[in-house]
Amino acid sequence: MENILLRNRTIPEIGTFETYLEHGGWEAFKKAFSMSPDEVIQEVLNSNLRGRGGAGFSTGRKWSFIPKDAERKYVVVNADESEPGTFKDRELLEFNAQQVIEGAMIAAYAIQATAVYIYFRGEFWDIAHNFEQEIAKAREANLIGQNILGGDWSCEFYTHLGAGAYICGEESAMLNSLQGLLGQPRVKPPFPVMKGGGLYYEPTVVNNVETLANVPWIIVNGADAYRAIGTPESPGPKIFCLSGHIAKAGNYEIPLGTTFRELLYDLAGGPQHEGKGFKALLPSGASGPVIPLTEDMMDTPMTYESLVELGSVLGSASFIVMEEGTDMVWAAYKMAQFFKHESCGKCTPCREGTYWLNQLMTRIISGQGTMRDLEILENAATQMQGKSLCALGEFATSPILGTLKHYRAEFEAYVNGEKQKELPASKTVAVAH
Amino acid sequence: MLQDEKYQEQIQRIFAKYPDKRSAVMPLLYLAQEAYGWLPEEALDEVAELCDIDPTQVKSIAGFYTMYRETPKGKYWLQVCTDLPCALRGADQFYEELKAYLEVEEGGTTEDGLFTVEHVMCLAACDRAPMLQCNFHYMENLDMDKMRAWIEERRAEAREKEQKS
Ligand SMILES: Cc1cc2nc3c(=O)[nH]c(=O)nc-3n(C[C@H](O)[C@H](O)[C@H](O)COP(=O)(O)O)c2cc1C
Ligand code: SF4
Ligand code: FES
Question: Does pTM surpass 0.80?
Answer without folding.
Answer: yes
